[in-house]
Predict the 3D structure of the following.
Amino acid sequence: MKAPDFDYLLPASLDAALAMLAEHGGEAMPLAGGQSLMPMMNFRVAAPEVLIDLANLSELRGISIEGDTIRIGAMTRYAELMADADVQKHIPIFGLALPHIAHDAIRNRGTIGGSIALADPAAEMPALLRALNAIVEAEGPDGTRMINADDFFLGMFETALDGELIKALHIPVATSEQRFGFHELTQRHGDYALAGVAVVQTSNTYRAAFFGVADRATRVPDLEQALEQQDDMASVLEHLGNIDFTDDLKANHTTRQRLAGVALKRALKGMTV
Amino acid sequence: MTGPAHIFDKPNRYIGKPEPRADAARLLQGRGSYVDDQKLPRMVHAAFVRSPHAHAKILSIDTEDARAAKGVIAVYSGEDLAAHVTPYVGTLTHLAGLRSMPQHPLAMEVARWQGEPVVMVVATSRALAEDACELVYVDFDELPAAVDSETALDLEAPVIHPELGNNLAWERDMVAGDIDAAFATPGVHVVEREFRFGRHTGVTLESRGTVCDYDPSENQLTVYYSGQAPHMMQVIFSKHLDLPEENIRVISNDVGGSFGIKIHTYGDEIATAAAAKLLKRPVKFIADRFESFVTDIHARDHIVKAKMGVTEAGTIVGIDFDDLTGIGPFSMYPRTSAIECNQVLNLTGAPYVMENYRAKGRVVFQNKTLMCQYRAVGHPIAMAIADGLLEDAARKIGMDPVALREINLMADDSYPRSSATGMKLDDLSHKRALRKLTELMDYDALRDERTEARKNGIYRGIGFVSMVEVTNPSPMFYGIGGAPIASQDGATVRLDAGGALHVSSSITEQGQGTNAILAQIAAGVFGVDLNRVKVTTGDTATTPYGGGTWASRGAGIGGEAMLQAAQALKDQVLEVAGVMLQTGVETLDIQGGAVTDLNGTIRLPLADLARTVYYRGNELPNDLNPELVATRHYRVTDFPFVFTNGAMAAHVEVDIETGFVKVLHFWAVEDCGRVINPLLVDEQIRGGVVQGIGGALYEECHYSPDGQFLNATMADYMVPMASEMPDITIAHIETPTKTSVLGAKGAGEAGTGGAPAAILNAVNDALSPMGASIWQMPMTPERILTALDQAD
Ligand SMILES: Cc1cc2nc3c(=O)[nH]c(=O)nc-3n(C[C@H](O)[C@H](O)[C@H](O)COP(=O)(O)OP(=O)(O)OC[C@H]3O[C@@H](n4cnc5c(N)ncnc54)[C@H](O)[C@@H]3O)c2cc1C
C-alpha cells in the first residue's frame, strides 16, 4: 500500500495549473485535500505520474456573496464551510448535512471541489448541489464554463469536466419561501450512506436529490411532482421505482429502495422552518 | 490453598488498587517502540506477490523484470525458499483425527486462498518492492474453489488436498445422557434454530510485522516481532530455519494489539526470516491493511443447527446441536484450527445444570483465509447457542428469561462439579452474578419502560447471557498435544543496589496493561513503592521461559509466578536483614522500600541493605551468601482450565423501518477472581464487549462465490466505532481461584465471548412483538428487515 513514484508540482496560479494539466494530459491529476486521491494512490487504483497540487491557487479559495448567489471556491474545506457565518445563514442545508460527511480529521482537509470532481455516488455534496440547483464553475484552456449541477454528474466517478479544473460553486442564497431537509442512513456515524436524500422545497415545488442509491446523485422528476401535488406518501414512494438502485455488500437494491423511502420521509418530517 | 491474608491486606498498597499504568504517558507521548519503529543499518524491505485467486495452479513464475527493477535485492519463489525452510503442519495429537497438509511460507505449485503469498520481493524500500511486485508475472491456471463450508463436503466439491480425499479436517461427537428420550418426554418443549455466525477478524491497530536481523558471524537471528508468544516463535524459527534455539532472540517491544491474531505462523513472516538469513542483513516486513485482511487469521464462520428442550416448569432437559465451521485451506500451525470447534462442543450450556447433551462438530477446509484462535475462541458461538435458545424457550413457555436462568444455573455452593460435557468447574458464582446484574440495570424498571415504549412504536429489547470463560489453561490445552507452547510462566525479581526492583516475566504486553499488574504484584508483595519497579517483558534473551499472553492467562499464571518470586525475594532479604540487625526474621517486614519491624517502624532502608551486600560484603558473615534475586515458575495443576463466569445484559432499540440497531446500554458483572487492577480489568471487559458488539452487528469478511475477499478495507469492513458504542457499566464479584495464592483468573475475553449472545437476545426481544427473530450475525439492517418480512 505505497503509491508508485510520481512527480509533484505546486503551481502558483490557476493559469499555471491549467498549463501543467494540458502539458501532462492524462498522466496528471489535480490534488485537493487528498482525502480520496491519496488512499486511491496507495491502493494503486490511481497511479498519476504527476500530481498538481491546487493548494496555492488563491483563485480557488474564498466565500463571497454575489447578488442572490453565494460563491464558494473549490478549495474550500468542509471545516471552513461549517465555520462560515455566510454559509450557515444562506445555505442552511449545509448545516444539516456537513456533520454527516466523514469525520473531523477528514473534514479538516477534504474540499468541496474535490468531492464534486470525484463524483462518488454515495457522497453528500453532489446531491446537495443538485437539490440546491447549484452551478459548477469550471476553468479550462478554452476559458470558463458554467455547468448546471444537474448536468455535471454523468455516472459513477464521472463528471462533465473535460481537461478543466473546478474553480468555484455558485449556490442560490436561501429565500424566505424555501425550506430544507436532509436525512441519511448510516450504520456508523461518518460512513458513506446506505441511502440519503437532500430536499429543497421552494413554495410548493420540490427538488429531492438522493445519494448512496444509484450510480450518481439522483433526482426523480415524477417523485418531485408527486410531492408538489401532495400525493399520499405511498404514491410518492412508488416513484422511487424509477431509480436503478445499487446492489452491494451492505444493502441490495430492495433494501436500498426501502431505505431511500425512509430517508425521504424523515427528511420531509425534519424540514427547516 | 488460599493465600495468606496479609499479602492482600495491610502492607500491600497495590494489588486490587486502581493504579494508573506506568506506560500510559510513554505511549501517549509517542515514545512507544513498535516493530515499524525499528530501523537497522543495511535494512531492506519485503513485499509479496499474493495469489489473486482462491484456488489456482501456479504454472510458471517469471521474475526476470522484477529482479532488474530499481532497488531490488532479491526475489524468491516458493521453491527458492523451500530449500531453506522446512514445511509445517497444523495438527496436534490430542485433537484425534485432525488432518492438514504441509504448508510452505510461499505457495508451492498451488495457491489455495486469495492473498496467499506466492513470491517475495526484497528491495531497498517498501515502495520499490511493491513496484517490483507488479513486474513479477505468475501464470496461474484457475481451479474451481471450495468456498462455501456448507458444500465443501459434497462429493462434487473441489478437493483442496487430493491426498486427503475430501475437505474434512476434523470431526468430533460428544454425547451425554439420552437427548432423544429427553426431548420426547411429554411436556417438554423443544425450540430449534439455525444460527449463522459470519467470519470476522481481529483488526489490530498495529498490523502484523517483523524485522529479522541475521548475523552470520554468530549464526544468530534476532527477530523484532509484533506478537504474543516470543518463546513459541523462538522454537518455530529454530525448527524450520535450522538454527539452534539459543541462537534465536525474539523481541516483542510495544505491541499494538493482538487479540489472538499474532500467535501463529504466517508465511510472510517466516519468509522474512529466511530472507534475512540468506541475505545476511536485516529485512523488514510490515503487513499493510489489505494484507492484514487477507492473511491475518479469521475467526468464527459457523453454521449451527441447534435444539433445546425445556419442561413447562422451565427446567432445561438438554441441548442438541450440529456445528459446521470452515477453516480455510490448512489448519493453522502450531495451534491448529480445530480448537474453536472443540471449545464450542465443550462450552455450550456450561453454566447450566443439564443431563442430556449431544453435539457434533465438523471442521472443513475451504479456499478462504485461514481461520484460527481469535479473542474468546469458540465462546461467542457456544454462549449464543445456549443462551439464544434459552431465551427462545423462555418466550415459548411464557417465562421471564431471568427466571428461567435462575432455575437452571448451577448453584454457587455446588462446586467443584462438572458440566454436562465433563468440564471441571470450581469457584463460580453464576447466581450471584445474575442477581447483581439485574440490580445494577434495574431490570424491573427497564422492563416496564420497554413495555411502555412499545405502545409508542419504539421497539426496545433486553437480552442476557450467563457465561463461562476458559482462562489460565494448563498443559492440557496445547502442550499435551505436542505443541511447543509453554503453559507455565516464569518471573524473576531482583533487588538492585539502589533499593529498586527489576522484574522480568515471560508474559507479554500488548496494550492491556500486563506490565502494570506485574509491577503492582511485585511492589505489593515485596514491599516497595510502585515507581521503584522496572518491568521487562517480551524478550527471549532476558526473561524467564514461558507461554506468553493468550487464553486469558497472563495475570493468572504470570501474575502468580511474580507473586511467588517477590515473596521468595522478600524471604531472602529478610534473612539478610535479620543477620544485619541481629534479630529474628519473624519480627521484620518490608514496607515502603525499607525493612521495618512489624508495626512499620523503619529499621533498615533497602538501599542500605543492598549496598552492604553488593559493595561491602566484608561486613557480612562469611557463610551468608545473599542472592537478592529470585525466580519462580508457575503452572496450573489439578484443573485443565480455570473457568470464570459472568452475567451480561444489553438494552437495544431496533428501528423497524430501517433495521438499524442501536445499543442503548450494556452491563457486565464479571467474576475473574482476584482483581489486581480494577481500571485494567474494566477496560478489558469494555474492549471485549465492544469487539463482541462488532461481531454481533458490524464485522464480516465477505467472499464472492469464487472466493474473492470483497471488503478488505477499513471503509468496507466495519469495526465498531466510539460514536455507536453504548455506556458499558461493569461490576465485579471476586471468587478467587483456589489454584493459586493470587487467586486471579483471566478477564481478557469475557466481553467478546458474552456480548454477542446478549445483543442477539436483546434484538430478538425487541423484534418479538412483530413475531420476528434473527439468528444470523452480524445482524445487519438488511438481515433484520428480512427477518421482519418473514415474521409470522
Ligand atoms: C475515512 C473517510 C471517510 C469519508 N467519508 C465521506 C463521507 O461520508 N461523505 C463524503 O462525501 N466523503 C467522504 N470521504 C471523502 C472525502 O469527503 C474527500 O475529501 C472528498 O471526497 C474529496 O475531497 P478532497 O479535497 O480530499 O479531494 P482529493 O482527494 O484531493 O481529490 C479527489 C478527486 O478530485 C480531483 N480534484 C480535486 N479537486 C479538483 C478540482 N478543483 N478540479 C478538478 N478536479 C479536482 C482529484 O484529481 C481527484 O481525482 C471520506 C474520506 C475518508 C478518508
Notes: DSSP finds twelve helices and 14 strands in chain A. Chain A touches chain B at residues 1-5, 43-44, 185, 187-192, 194, 249-252, 255, 258-259, 262 (CB under 8 Å). The two ends of chain A are 48 Å apart (CA to CA).
